[in-house]
Amino acid sequence: MLSVQPELNFNTEGLEVTVHAEDREAEGLSVEDVFTMIVTPVNDAPTVEAAIGEFTVDEDADRTDIANLDDVFTDLDGDALFYSLIDPPAELGLEIADGVLSVLIQEYLME
């Protein structure tokens, strides 16, 4: 059995592989098989490059940038990433604009 385990994220349009078989009981009896190995690329999921961690802001603070999300997330394939918030707490006034996550504490919700 011939198996292959390419390096992580390696791909190629084709590499030539030669397999040699030899009968060692009879001198000079051998044969070769040549084939092309193609490793197709796959679209990898984005990853967290630098987690945001805990963030503190004063209750009366103006809009405050938390993080540039292009610094937080990365895509190995170089694909553009699109960001969104999932069920953010309304009283935080979280927003993503131009890839920047910011917060504006909503005073009227804090009463």
List the topology elements.
Layout: E1 12-23, E2 29-39, E3 47-48, E4 64-68, H1 69-72, E5 73-74, E6 95-97, E7 100-103
Antiparallel strand pairs: 1-2, 3-5, 4-7, 6-7
**How much helical structure, as a percent, in the residues?**
under 10%
For the largest beta-sheet, the strand count, sense and barrel status come to: 3 strands, antiparallel
Q: What is the number of helices?
A: 1
Shape summary: rod-shaped
Order of helices and strands: EEEEHEEE
Quick take:
The chain is mostly beta strands and 111 residues long.
Structure keywords:
mainly beta, three-stranded antiparallel beta sheet, single chain, 1 helix, 111 residues, 35% strand
Description:
This protein is mainly β and 111 residues long. The protein has a domain of 63 residues. It contains one helix and seven strands. A three-stranded antiparallel beta sheet has the order 4-7-6. A hairpin with a 5-residue loop joins strand 1 and strand 2. The radius of gyration is 27 Å and the shape is rod-shaped. The protein starts with 11 loop residues before the first strand and ends in an 8-residue tail after the last strand. 0% of the residues are buried. The model has no long low-confidence stretch (mean pLDDT 91).
